[in-house]
């Protein structure tokens, strides 16, 4: 079910962070993502694989690296709304 895939993608904070970084910066390599988030390349790669398997991100090869991007244009809109909602929630916390 698509809604379950979406819930799984957004469940882990690191995946939300990865998606936000890619959304802001465009195509990014595993190395760039790992450096930006302060995690290992293994960790970033593992979460990118999950997002790829869910059909949310895709990649293009630019040897020696893969560059990931958000496959679904509507997903960028969802991330914007998600960030907006979390900011509003913080105001009431």
From TrEMBL:
- Read off the Pfam families from this record: HTH_5 (PF01022)
Asked if the record carries the keyword Transcription, the reply is yes
Q: Which InterPro entries match?
A: ArsR-like_HTH, HTH_ArsR_DNA-bd_dom, HTH_MetalResp_TranReg, WH-like_DNA-bd_sf, WH_DNA-bd_sf
* Keywords, alphabetical: DNA-binding, Transcription, Transcription regulation
Q: Which GO terms describe its molecular function?
A: DNA binding; DNA-binding transcription factor activity
Q: Domain HTH arsR-type spans what residues?
A: 1-90
| Entry annotated with the keyword Cell inner membrane | no
Q: Show the PANTHER family listed in the entry.
A: TRANSCRIPTIONAL REGULATOR, ARSR FAMILY, TRANSCRIPTIONAL REPRESSOR SDPR
Q: What name has this protein been given in UniProt?
A: Transcriptional regulator, ArsR family
Q: Which organism is it from?
A: Archaeoglobus sulfaticallidus PM70-1
